[in-house]
Amino acid sequence: KPKAKAPLHSGAEAKALAVGRPQPAVAAAPTGRTTNRFDEPGFGYVIEYPADWQMEKAAAYTTVFSGRRGTPAYDAIVSVQNVQPAAADTADAVRLAYDDLKAQLADAAEGLAIDAEKDVSYAKRGVRLAGRQFVATYNHGGRQFRKWALVLPRPSGDITHVWSYTAPASRFDAYRPVAETMLRSWIIAN
Fold this sequence. Notes:
The chain is an alpha+beta fold and 190 residues long. The chain has helices spanning 11-17, 90-108, 172-185; strands at residues 35-38, 45-50, 53-59, 62-67, 77-83, 110-124, 127-140, 143-153, 160-168, 187-188. Helix content is 21%, strand content 43%.
């Protein structure tokens, strides 16, 4: 059986996630577990998220995880988007997706300051990938936010995954351990 490729992410919806939360999600009933697992065919990855958080598919191949409405964690958002840049090779795909994400953020936000830009590597279950990450601070809708974004290619190189954690600046450090735990649980399929 051939492995399913991670499908194309449609471009227009990506701009909605550049700065913050998409439309409100419908809360799911608590499960009694400490974590839930997102593992849907065609997305190209699996990731665990807190059982008391909600998951929503915000757009084509864009998954958003956050605390439930009415909780302090509601504005702490971890998202994963599949993006297909028109690139000649894997390194070019990462660069194009990375630059596009920064450009979308600059267009949608005010007072953008990007720091902590660096190359990153992913090595799990025999899959080794090279990508880029940044941390940004910006204003949107009268509030200050911080975003940590990481762009990694699919092993085949034709799709990139954009993982990000966004929260109001005042809560960024409080929910960063949750985002880090989710990032550690993120497995990109070979």
